[in-house]
Amino acid sequence: MRGARHLLWAALAATATACAHAPAAARPAKAAVVWPEPPEPARARLVGVVPDPDAPPPRRPWWAIAAEWITGGKVGTPREALQRPFGIAVGPDGATYVADPDSAGVYRVRSDGTLDAIRCRAAEWGAPMAVALADGALWVADAGLAAVARIREADCTLLGVGAFERPTGVAVGADRVFVADPPRHQIVVLAKDGRVVARWGAEGSGDGQFAFPTSLAFAGSGELVVTDALNFRVARLDTEGRWVSAFGAPGETGAGFARPKGIAVDEGGLVYVSDAQRDLVLVFARGGELQYAIGAPGDEPGRFALPSGLAVAAGRLYVADSQNGRIQVFELVGGRP
Known about the structure:
Blueprint: H1 2-21, E1 34-35, E2 44-50, H2 62-71, E3 87-90, E4 96-100, E5 105-109, E6 115-117, E7 128-134, E8 137-142, E9 147-152, E10 155-159, E11 169-172, E12 176-181, E13 186-191, E14 196-200, E15 213-218, E16 224-228, E17 233-237, E18 243-247, E19 260-265, E20 271-275, E21 280-284, E22 290-294, E23 307-313, E24 316-321, E25 326-332
Antiparallel strand pairs: 1-2, 2-25, 3-4, 4-5, 5-6, 7-8, 8-9, 9-10, 11-12, 12-13, 13-14, 15-16, 16-17, 17-18, 19-20, 20-21, 21-22, 23-24, 24-25
Helix pairs in contact: 1-2
C-alpha cells in the first residue's frame, strides 16, 4: 500500500514539474478566412468553429493522470462529440441547438464543443433531422420517429404521429407548424396541438408541386421558402400554401444546384442555401439572383463536407458542416473588406 502511494505521489510530482517547466507555445497569427476570396470584397468572415480545432484539450483530473502514469493505460472516457450535425437553430441568447441523426441525439452545444444532451421523455430519439425555436420551446423533426417533438422545460410532446413518412424540416409560425416530408413530396401543416390542418403539394415539377422538399424557413415577409431538392430549386409560398415564385436550376457551377439541403433567410431578405454536393453555401437575393458563395470542399476551417442545416442570427451564419462533424460560424460583413 505504501509503495502504491509512493508511486502516486511521484507521478503527481513529475506531472507538476513537467507542467511548470513546459514553455508556452507561441501560435502564429492566422490569416482571416473570408468568402468570396480576395480580391473580391469580403461578405462572410469565419469567426468560429465548434469544436475549436485549436483549443487545448480539457484539463483532466490529477487522479486520472497519476493512474495512467502508474498503469500505462487510459483512464476515463472521451467527451461526447458531434457525429453528423444536420439541423441547427440558434436562440436569442446565442445558444446553439443541433439535431444529429447519426448519434440519434439532440444537443445544446457549448462554445468549447461539449454537448448537453436534450432528452424527450415521450420517446427515444430515432433520427432527428431539424430543430427550430419558437414559443419558448424546442421543436424537433425526427425522421426515425416520423413525428415532430415539442420540448418545453421537462415536457416533451410528440405531434403529428402517423401524419408523416420521414419529416426532415420544421418551421413554426404564430399558430401553425410547417413540416417538410420528402418521401411524400409534401409540406404538412399542423395546428399547435398536432392536428393536421393541410397538406401542400404533390410529386411533380410544376407550380405547387415538389420533388423531395427537404427543409424550410420563414422569410421576413412571412412567406415560407422551401428547398425543393430534386427539382433543384427554391420555392416560395405564402402561409396559406399559395405558390408565390421559385428560382433555381440544376448545375455544378454558378447559381446551379446539385444537392440543395438547408435554407435560411436573413433580415435583409437574402436566402442562404447549402449544397451538399458542391460543398458550399450559395447566397441569393430575394428574386433568385446569385450574390456570392461561401466555402469550398475540404476540412480546413471555412470549408465544408456535405453542409446541411443553416441558421442566421444576430448578423451571423451558422452552418452544420455534417461530414466534418462540426459547426462553423461566419460573420456576415456586408461587403466590408
